[in-house]
Amino acid sequence: MKNPSSGASKITPCCSKVGIKRGPWTPEEDEILAKYIKREGEGRWRTLPKRAGLLRCGKSCRLRWMNYLRPSVKRGHIAPDEEDLILRLHRLLGNRWSLIAGRIPGRTDNEIKNYWNTHLSKKLISQGIDPRTHRPLNPNPNSPEVGHGRELISKPKANRYSTPVVFEETGGNSTANGIQSDTNQLKGGHDLVVNDCMMGIQSGYRRGNEEDYIENCNELDTFSSFLDSLINDSMFLNQQQQQPNFHPLVCSSSAQTINHGNTIWEAELRSSIDTSSEEQSAQNNHPA
DNA sequence: AACTACGCCAACCGCAACCGA
DNA sequence: TTCGGTTGCGGTTGGCGTAGT
């Protein structure tokens, strides 16, 4: 299955397995890698194994460092509040594990992805919720709510950096057609704002040129503030208190189907846009 | 005790974006 | 502008541990 020489039109030196060790890392390898990165710093992954004296490919070294050896990595049990945050961020961002991980200190994208696949998705399914769309499974097809409303859904792999988030609103009824890739389907100002912000986040965080995209995309702060509001929102807690049948795993989705066009999180976004625009003048930089 | 099924998670792979020559 | 190399992301796999029979 994992034969690098099959099916690949080109094989980068990094992926060549000649003399390259694979499989689990030993404590000795961990120590060599950690010491080297402490001494020389991160980066130049491709040449790092040779410089450090490791028989590993650069990708493997990077992954090991990022997911396991980094001092900031928090390992172990995921707390309920972290789980709640993952759920809400996933509903917002889809399978953008690195973005989700970026909002949860000490957690890696791999860890969150694994936790989602092994715990949260099953949890949602057991509660009759589609973990991909955060909508009820086997909904009543006659219901006007089915397939309507707004949602954020992960993109197919081919376009995962192009238009990561699309909100579509048509007339009085919001529609969500699942995976969207065509920016022509964007409608409404908020849709564009969020989409542009995501584009900025994507391009910026991938390469760390934060100054560039912050200059060119002020909406980053908007979106970041929006995420912060999700993290800290009291609305979520209020819902739990006010709705006897409220379940945290369907929090905003239940609210949005009830409210149709005026969704809870649209309000959150509006609020975020309003407040963040005020804050932007006083806040030049925002920790990503 | 032996075997099987299942869950978890570290690690790998392919792809796409980014960057510099 | 093009192209090759590098980096980072998300999907997937394989191995290990454990529960169940």
Description:
The chain is mainly α and 288 residues long. The protein has two domains: 15-69, Homeodomain-like (Arc Repressor Mutant, subunit A), CATH 1.10.10; 80-282, no CATH class. Helix content is 51%, strand content 3%. The chain contains twelve helices and four strands, in the order H-H-H-H-H-H-E-E-E-E-H-H-H-H-H-H. The chain has helices at residues 27-40, 48-52, 58-69, 80-93, 97-102, 109-126, 189-207, 210-216, 219-232, 234-242, 251-259, 264-282, and strands spanning 129-130, 135-136, 169-170, 173-174. A two-stranded antiparallel sheet has the order 1-2. Helix 7 packs antiparallel against helix 8 (210-216), helix 7 (189-207) packs across helix 9 and helix 9 crosses helix 12. The two termini are 37 Å apart. Mean pLDDT is 59; it is low at 1-15, 141-219 and 234-288. The chain binds a DNA duplex (21 and 21 nucleotides) through residues 1-2, 4, 7-8, 12-15, 22-25, 43-46, 57-60, 62-64, 66-68, 95-98, 109-111, 113-115, 117-119, 154, 157-158, 160-162, 202-203, 205-207, 209. It is found in: Nucleus.
